């Protein structure tokens, strides 16, 4: 009888351990599964190539006509690491919140470095709205978001050439 009770307790402990292990496995699996949606505006790679070609044709003529530095020397693409983009977005959201704004997007600006003979660049500027009342949860503002006082992101790695796969 004593062995039966010990065996019963051992069986109960084994079942409890298996149950807990199975629950933690389900939690780990659900943590690794990321939910996302394909945002509006995603285009095919063929469309991207067509857009890039049209941009090059339009701007090569403008650069050459204006007597600017050779078009081939201008950056035609810019690169930031995924880590830098994620860190910047987290930084910008926190800065916006600290300054009393709700960040709701990022605007991309075309720009040029005057000190680098007009070398083109671009930068990301956070957009959003000022928080007027912490008690209000309804946003009554309409229209496009405005720029907010958070430092933009620049200094990506520039590149030349076509968009090709």
Spell out the blueprint of helices and strands:
Layout: H1 2-32, H2 45-65, E1 77-79, H3 82-98, E2 101-113, E3 119-130, E4 146-147, E5 157-159
Antiparallel strand pairs: 1-5, 2-3, 3-4
Any overview of this molecule?
Helices cover 42% and strands 20% of the residues. The protein has helices spanning 2-32, 45-65, 82-98, and strands at 77-79, 101-113, 119-130, 146-147, 157-159. Strand 2 (101-113) and strand 3 form a beta hairpin. Among the domains are: 42-74; 78-159, no CATH class. The chain is globular. Strands 2-3-4 form a 3-stranded antiparallel sheet. The chain has a two-stranded antiparallel sheet with strand order 1-5. By secondary structure, it is an alpha+beta fold.
Outline of this structure?
The protein is α+β, with helices and mostly antiparallel strands and 165 residues long.
Structural descriptors:
three-stranded antiparallel sheet; 3 helices; alpha+beta; 165 residues; globular
The DSSP helix count reads 3
Judging from the principal axes of the Cα atoms, what is the shape?
A: globular
Question: Which structural class is indicated by helix and strand composition?
Answer: alpha+beta
**What level of helicity do the residues show?**
40-55%
Provide mean pLDDT, rounded: 75
Order of helices and strands: HHEHEEEE
Oligomeric state as shown: single chain
Describe the biggest sheet? 3 strands, antiparallel
């Amino acid at each position: 009888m004593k062995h039966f009770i010990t065996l019963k307790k051992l069986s109960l402990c084994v079942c409890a351990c298996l149950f807990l292990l199975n629950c933690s496995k389900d939690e780990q699996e659900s943590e690794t599964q990321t939910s996302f949606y394909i945002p509006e505006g995603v285009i095919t790679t063929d469309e991207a190539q067509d857009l890039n070609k049209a941009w090059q044709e339009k701007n090569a003529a403008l650069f050459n006509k204006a007597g600017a530095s050779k078009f081939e020397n201008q950056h035609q693409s810019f690169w930031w690491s995924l880590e830098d983009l994620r860190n910047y977005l987290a930084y910008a959201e926190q800065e916006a919140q600290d300054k009393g704004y709700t960040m709701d997007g990022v605007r991309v600006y075309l720009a040029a470095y005057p000190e680098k003979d007009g070398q083109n660049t671009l930068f990301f500027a956070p957009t959003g709205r000022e928080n007027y009342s912490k008690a209000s949860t309804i946003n009554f503002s309409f229209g496009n978001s405005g720029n907010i006082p958070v430092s933009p992101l620049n200094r990506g790695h520039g590149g030349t050439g076509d968009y090709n796969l």
